[in-house]
Amino acid sequence: MEIRKEQKENAIRLSAVENGEELGVMYLYLIRNDSHTEPYGLLEDVLVKEEHRKKGIGTMLVKEALNEAKRLNCYKVIGTSRMERENVHAWYEKLGLKKHGFEFRIDL
């Protein structure tokens, strides 16, 4: 299995590919602000095809995204998850991310 990286305008698209089939995908968005000279990373849309879940593909993608964020000198990386998805929270924590604050949002 290989992890492919595709540079987008403000993000890096990472995909896990095996035998020409895309098994999983995610985005690492790079966000800049006036508080820091370095960007921060936002993990978004981590998705592994249902028949390939529980095989470590999502973990491989997130670890590669974290490595990419380090390479790009991000000062932090954020992963979000809905409140009821406690299994995802545990997974993020297993990968070294820590709970930090709350996300507030409005759907438009």
- CATH homology-level superfamily: Gcn5-related N-acetyltransferase (GNAT)
CATH top-level class: Alpha Beta
CATH topology (level 3) name? Aminopeptidase
Order of helices and strands: EEEEHEH
Largest sheet: 5 strands, mixed
Strand content: 25-35%
**Helix fraction?**
10-25%
Quaternary structure:
single chain
Mean pLDDT: 93
Could you explain the architecture of this structure?
The chain has 108 residues and is of the alpha+beta class. It has a single domain (2-94), classed as Gcn5-related N-acetyltransferase (GNAT) (Aminopeptidase, 3-Layer(aba) Sandwich), CATH 3.40.630.30. The protein is built from two helices and five strands. It has helices spanning 57-71, 86-94, and strands spanning 2-7, 11-18, 21-31, 40-48, 77-79. A five-stranded mixed sheet has the order 1-2-3-4-5, with helices on one face. A hairpin with an 8-residue loop joins β3 (21-31) and β4 (40-48). The longest helix is centred in the middle third of the chain and has 15 residues, at 57-71. The model has no long low-confidence stretch (mean pLDDT 93).
Keywords:
Aminopeptidase, 108 residues, alpha+beta, 22% helix, 5-stranded mixed beta sheet
Short recap of the structure:
The protein is of the alpha+beta class and 108 residues long. The chain has helices at residues 57-71, 86-94; strands at residues 2-7, 11-18, 21-31, 40-48, 77-79.
Strand and helix map with partners:
Elements (H helix, E strand, L loop, with lengths): L1 E6 L3 E8 L2 E11 L8 E9 L8 H15 L5 E3 L6 H9 L14
Parallel strand pairs: 4-5
Antiparallel strand pairs: 1-2, 2-3, 3-4
